[in-house]
Design goal:
single chain; alpha/beta; TIM Barrel; 8-stranded parallel sheet; two-stranded antiparallel ribbon; globular; binds NADP nicotinamide-adenine-dinucleotide phosphate; Putative oxidoreductase; NADP
Length: about 280
């Protein structure tokens, strides 16, 4: 496993396992247990996924020392604000059955996220969180937050895949020492990504699948990746990306797939913001 060193010295695996949309707790525990068997040590969950307990169970039952894992969770909008955030962090610690969380992200740039950030800073100083960061904070929100707080976010998790490569936003994160973490590396399978001819052709050269090419391309851009799957063979496939290297030419070719905008939604669209406000 390769690691990235965050701006506070904490080491984060460059490849992890995401559990968004695995809402059935038994299925989630099983998938995380399989991922752990394969070798994943970074698990990415969130309060909003309602599966922190399943993640905690799988980690506990693995028998592997807690310090070998890197657990990320995210604080939801309805838990924003200083007091609410602290209460919800205590709940996350309990659900995950752990004394500390490796990384806590503010899930969305909405609500009283300044109050939330101060709660994260407090828990960080107490050692209950080893690194703090944000998610879906595009350059304007990111620069604003880091300009008026003591601790620079260690990570910003944003939609990043071949069709939305975040080239400019990544540059700004690098400027401020914020590690980029991709969500939806496979664009959740949209736009027939696994059948994309450009990616397939590149994969054939290395005897690798489209999924492996995408993960390798992100890793070579120093992007932390957290692919999700509930299928053991895919969980294995997505982990098997450290025995080849894409040429500069192939990296450039993949660059040409960038559409420069989200395939999901815009955080600047009023209707989308209204939709976020309805989510508990
Ligand atoms: N911060 C945020 O706002 C945010 C938003 C979205 C996601 N995330 C995080 O990012 C993680 C990854 O994103 P995601 O789950 O949305 O999408 P994703 O990882 O881009 O795609 C997952 C989809 O790809 C399929 N898949 C996985 N590996 C495959 C392979 N090797 N071949 C073919 N199909 C494959 C999965 O199917 P099966 O499961 O059926 O195998 C699933 O349908 C999430 O789990 C979550 O932890 C964060």
């Amino acid at each position: 496993m390769d690691y990235i060193q965050l701006n506070n010295g904490v080491k984060m695996p460059i490849l992890g396992f995401g559990v968004y949309q695995i809402t059935d707790l038994e299925e989630c525990e099983k998938a995380v247990s399989e991922a752990i068997d394969v070798g994943y040590r970074l698990i990415d969950t969130a309060q909003a996924y309602s599966n922190e307990t399943a993640v905690g169970n799988a980690i506990k039952k693995s028998g592997i020392p807690r310090k070998e894992f890197f657990i990320t969770t995210k604080l939801w909008i309805s838990n924003s604000g200083y007091e609410n955030a602290k209460k919800s962090l205590d709940e996350s610690l309990e659900n995950l059955q752990t004394d500390y969380i490796d990384l806590v992200l503010i899930h969305q740039p909405f609500g009283d996220y300044y109050g939330t950030y101060r709660a994260l800073e407090d828990y960080y100083k107490k050692g209950k969180i080893k690194a703090i960061g944000v998610s879906n904070f595009y350059p304007d929100r990111l620069i604003d937050l880091l300009s008026f707080n003591e601790i620079v976010p260690a990570v910003n998790q944003v939609e990043t895949h071949p069709f939305n490569q975040q080239i400019e936003a990544h540059g700004i994160m690098e400027k401020y020492g914020v590690q980029i973490n991709s969500w939806a590396p496979f664009c959740e399978g949209m736009d027939n990504i696994f059948e994309n001819e450009v990616l397939k052709e590149i994969g054939e050269k290395y005897d690798k699948t489209v999924a492996q090419v995408i993960l390798r391309w992100l890793i070579q851009r120093s992007v932390v990746v957290i692919p999700k799957s509930v299928h053991k063979e895919r969980i294995e496939e997505n982990f098997d990306v450290f025995d080849f290297e894409l040429s500069e030419e192939d990296m450039e070719t993949i660059k040409s797939l960038d559409c420069g905008e989200s395939k999901f939604f815009s955080h600047y669209d009023p209707e989308i913001v209204e939709w976020f406000m309805t989510m508990k």
